[in-house]
Every structure is written in C-alpha cells, then in structure tokens.
Amino acid sequence: MPVPEAAVFERLRGFAAVDTAQEHASRTISEVFTGRPLGEVPVGTVADVSAAFAKARVAQQEWAARSPKERAEVFERYRALVVDNREFLMDVIQAETGKARWAAQEEIMGLIFAARYFARVTPELLASHKVAGAFPILNRAAVRAQPKGVVGVIAPWNYPMLLSVGDSIPALLAGNAVIVKPDSQTPYSSLANVELFRRAGLPRDLLQVVPGPGGVVGTAIVDACDYLMFTGSSATGRTLAQQCGRRLIGFSAELGGKNPMIVTRGADLDKAAKAAVRACFSNAGQLCISIERLYVERAVAAAFTEKFVAAVKGAKLGAAYDYSADIGSLISEAQLETVTKHVADATSKGAKVLVGGNARPDIGPLFFEPTVLAEVTDEMECGRNETFGPLVSIYPVADVEEAIVRANDTEYGLNASVWAATKAEGERIAERLHAGTVCVDEGYAPAWGTTGAPMGGMGISGVGRRHGPDGLLKFTEPQTVVVTRFLNLDAPWGIPQDKWQPFLMTIARVIRFLPGR
C-alpha cells in the first residue's frame, strides 16, 4: 500500500485558510518513513489568522441559529465519510507521523466515536432546562447553553487527526466556529478532514485550518479566540494558560504524563506482558497516555520481566502502509535525539538495558528500538521526566502499598494501568491512584474509547476534560433566564416596607421545606 501521490497533498494544500493572493513562505512536509518530500504547505501569518477569525465570526452566527439537531445531522454525514475514507486517512496519518497502521487506525476510531457520541447527546445537553426559581410561582427559571463564539484549537503532531479534529467536533456541535493550528509537521491530517467536512455540508468558514509556527499563528489565535483547547507539553500549557488568563478566556488542556502500570502477584502475567507492549510502545511511545513506569510486586517481578522482555523482542519495527509492523517510527530528529539522550544518560548512571537501546537507521532515518530499562533512579533524566518515546523503566516493589506510593510520586496525573489478581482488587487500587483515567486489565485504549466519560489529567497533566458531557459543555456559556410573574419584589399594592419585608422573610423560611431547597 503506497503513500498517496503528490497530487493528493497538493489538493489538500488548497484547504489551508491562507490568502492565496498574497505571497507566502512555504514548508516542506516529508514522509517520516523515508524523508522524501510529500508536498509544500503555506506558512500562515497573523493577517491570515485575523482574516480567518473575521470569516468565522460571520459563519458562527448563522450556525448557532441552527438547532442542535440540524447541526448533528452534518456530523452524522461526516462520520459516514470517515468510515468510507478510512484507508486514505490512515495513509495520510502514517505519511506524516510514521506510526504503525494499527496506531493510525486508533485515530480513525477516535474520530468515529467522537462524531457519533457528540452528535447523539448534543440536542439533549444543549436543551434549555428548568430550575427552581427564587420564589415559587412568582419566578420561572431556566438555564440554556450559549456557544462561546470562535474556539481556537492548537493541536500536536503525535495524534494529528484525532487531537485537532476530535476536539473540534464538540466545539462545532456546541454552536461555535473553530480555528485550528495544526503542528507544523502534520498539517495534512487536519486539512484532509476539512475536505470531508465540506462534503458533509459544514459551512465553509466554520472550520478553518491555518498552518504555521506557534509563535506566530498560535499566538495570534490565543489573542483572538473566545476559548482555547490545547494538547501538548505541560511547559507550553503553563504559558498558554497565562496568556488566556490575561484575556480572561476559558482554557482546556491535555498535557504531559509519566504514566504508571502496576502489576500485582496473582495477575495474569502473560496478558499483562502482552498488553504492556501496546501500552508502552503505541506510536513508538509518543502518546501522552502511554505507560513509562512499570511497578511489579517483587514476588512476580522476575517472571513478568522475562515475559515482557520476550514480548518486546518479538515486536516488529517497520515502515509499512499495512498491518505488518507492530511499532513505527519516531517523528523527528528532535524526538530521536531526546530518546537517545535519555538512554545514554540512564546507562551512564548505572541503568541496565534489558532490551533495545539502539537507533535503527537500517529501517528508516528516525527509528529507535523499543527499550526497557532496569535499575533506573530519580537522578536519571528518564526517572521523573516524560521521555515521549519508546522507553520504559521497570521497578520491582515490595507490595501493592509501595507500588501505589511510587505511582503517585509524580507531578503528573494523566493515566494509569492496573493488573491484579481480581477485577475488584484492581478497582480498589485504581481508586487510590492520582490519575484522570485508570484502566484495569488494559493500558489506555478503553479509557480513551469510553467517549461518554470525561478524559483528562490531574496535577500538571491538564486542565479541564475532553469527552463526556463536560467535553461539550466547556465550549458553552450557561445562561440563566428568570421570568417574574404576578408581582415584583418592590412592596406591592401600597404595602409599607416595614410590613412587606417581614413577609418576604416568612416566605424564605417556608421555601426551605420545598423539594430541591
């Protein structure tokens, strides 16, 4: 299955929200597997962002006037188009990121799940609902959700389709327009979906993608948007939060993770070891919710380590547009350099390489073997810092208590995995972990795929949640409308204030006995 031809990427380039009448610099996007050019994408400017927002604000007014049900119909059509074009979309993802095809399929499944869930629940979640008024009979109160306006989405390169378009779906369904800044390495993944949305009937200016550097395009979006959704590093998240705070606009972010897996005595070690390969090395470890720390009860540590190392050795690295490879490439020289430095630093300070540890230029320019380290300490670069690559450390622990303490001994709190003798024991451990999501008897995928539940981080791993009702309602402003009937709170019918005010206090004492008070 070959990479799409140059003409395909030239077509997608046309969906970038840039002024084609003006001269633009361009960036070459390369196929990660080989380094050969895929195509040229224009580099957006502050003027392009300003123009995109001007168009988006006009389009948003008409879109917000449509009923949630009408908006949902567009996304049902979009979902069907994703299903029909899934092979092409996976080709684009693989070409830009170098991930294995099954990992690219995770993105497609995520888009399908998000479109289906939010299209289904939006009419109900956005419906006006009654609440008890301050004074029964006299007041009728209702709460409705208004869209924020124009939402900015700053997306990363590791899951470039799911984390740009997947976050745009609920924002759009909530009645907003969206301006996306994709990572400069992966613009085609977002642009391919703009094409599908146009075919599904989404108004032209409602979803726009402006490629370009974060310091220019990203900053301009933060300066103009009514709400910001960001996925990336905790360091960048802090900076963006400060910028949003100065403007007093809402901000949601999924940030970094140093995610733990706990394996207890009595767990099914064969299943745990096999699942750990997926949990640790999906997308070559370039996944915020992937596992980087393994805590195994000492009684089974040797047996688990043997099975896990064997499973890692059996995983196939490959550059293929089919399902023949288990693990794909890193995306850039910078990522390759980080992983190489973390391994070198750890081994120079006494860590032991159990498997892997080497770059594989024989497969492709940015491949690195899945690597398992033992005897890692906090003084090592990979001990407490996120590597974001195919590197995991394994730690024998005395018991479950030590495993929980060490798993929680981090500023991060994004995802965790638990493997125990029983499901009940696994759930009890999960409840004590400081993490936004915990998978019992799996790594990360079921928690991510449970679109009806909130997904996000604690600590420095994030602010706000994606998925679930919160994943839609965060893109809205709740508005309370209260209608007063019969009489106002001014003393009516000429009753003196000294008589009227005690009467109001009598009402206040009585209403506490009413339901919901």
Q: What does this protein look like?
A:
This protein is an alpha/beta fold and 517 residues long. The chain is 44% helix and 18% strand. The protein contains 18 helices and 18 strands. The strands form 4 sheets. It has a 7-stranded mixed beta sheet with strand order 12-13-14-11-10-15-16, with helices on both faces. A 6-stranded mixed beta sheet has the order 7-6-5-8-9-17, sandwiched between helices. Helix 3 packs across helix 7. It is globular, with a radius of gyration of 26 Å. The chain starts with 5 loop residues before the first helix and ends in a 6-residue tail after the last helix.
Task: Kindly list the characteristics that best describe this protein.
517 residues, 18 helices, seven-stranded mixed beta sheet, 44% helix, alpha/beta
Rg: 26 Å
Task: Tell me the total number of β-strands.
Answer: 18
Proportion of residues in extended strands:
15-25%
Shape descriptor reads globular
**Overall average residue pLDDT:** 95
How far from one another are the termini?
64 Å
Biggest sheet details: 7 strands, mixed
Enumerate how many helices there are, as a single number: 18
**Helical content band:** 40-55%
Query: Main sheet: which strands, in order across?
Result: 12-13-14-11-10-15-16
Structural class: alpha/beta
Low-confidence stretches are none
